């Protein structure tokens, strides 16, 4: 607040305190932030000659979360006297004030006011009313509003779970909780708190353990996508040390995490630790996909055969993993077999299946076949499909087709920097320098900027992020010294006059 007051003094001195953008920010910080001061915000508001509805709402919101929520009501009445029409944001803040005051009589009056102004079908307003009625002990009115909502979100569901829990009706709270399409920390906490308040501590702990399992699945998913193997291992140790039940969902997440992080043996250990009759198609997919991602083609296909022997029915994801394995292993005929199997077993081919098949053919040099698949698909080619074909064109020096595909990619994603650079590189390799330069100019005219590529490296359980030519890392001096040392150890003999992969973006950036 002292810093805000200094800035405010400068704004007044420069004569721009009436500017709405400045006034709104000053009001918002002082009224709503945890380190703010609602009374200061109120004084600033009084200095405005023509306050907007946003400014009025900010003060109402500030008082609704203050020690004196009654001020929100009096300020709302004053706003109406000035002829300011409330909007869909005004009433939720008022409802929050009434919820804190637990005044059902006033709550009913604000609901009546909302009905007159036509905002009662606004979902934001409806959620606030549900919370207000539940906090005032009128769970029946809250449930009526909830049941009549055409579209609910997590806030709607959470308000009902919390309302029933606070009223001591844990049976209904649990019913609502189990029906929720998505649960968040508020949902879990409300139910746990409800069980604690009625003295059912055993059930509270059971819900907490269940929450831990759900959270652990999400954390392992994050580790998998970041390649944070050590963090994933720590989560596995945490599960074991705390005696958390190894549900099939959690075991599947562990297999997926280890596989995506490159620890195939550890993934296989977890997979084999699951009883055969308990494995579902998801955990089989995670292991088959793990083998495929890291080029263990034979192991991937062998595991699929084992899966079939045990009578587990594959799904679309299974075949996607198998196609990926075929791409890495160069198995074109096997890929065609799996691709056709989707039709045979009554499954629908998704764009991902076509992309994988194009990748298989592209890697094998059967580029015309791959291009034919793209032209005969029942859907428009996606960027991933065209990208797979472009990669094949690069590998097999089919620059004529690479140009066609590159242009299609630009049409598909005109604001993607990589598409222009890709086509520019095609022209550069073909020594068509004028066209390569033109692509760069087109990119600049459209205002498309080249996004820097980044990489993640996990060292000592810490995830480090690097960008090309980046020197922001605290150990950048040591890192560059080591890179220079490594570069000197590598002996490269390249004839730059005949080098095929002389990429234009590398040449340009020197």
Automatic annotation (TrEMBL):
Listed GO MF terms: RNA binding
PPR repeats: 52-86, 122-152, 153-187, 280-314, 315-349
SUPFAM superfamilies reported in the protein's UniProt record: TPR-like
UniProt-listed GO biological process terms: RNA modification
Top-level taxonomic group: Eukaryota
Pfam families: E_motif (PF20431), PPR (PF01535), PPR_2 (PF13041)
PROSITE patterns to which the protein is assigned, alphabetical: PPR
Keywords per UniProt: Repeat
Cited InterPro entries: E_motif, PPR_At4g14850-like_plant, PPR_rpt, TPR-like_helical_dom_sf
Keyword Transmembrane helix attributed: no
Name of the molecule in the record: Pentatricopeptide repeat-containing protein
